[in-house]
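Revision sheet: structure tokens.
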Amino acid sequence: MQTRPLRHLFKKESRLRAYYQISFEREAYEHQKEPDYLNSRTPFAWRHYL
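Predicted:
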């Protein structure tokens, strides 16, 4: 489990900022304009964003 986004929530900082710090979301945001990304994505590619 990632603690960075949870720290933001407990400190009552920007919840949107905490959301965008989640590695799954960072990967999705970076590749959102690549229509074939899911076909070429390696398993567990989100680990690169930890």
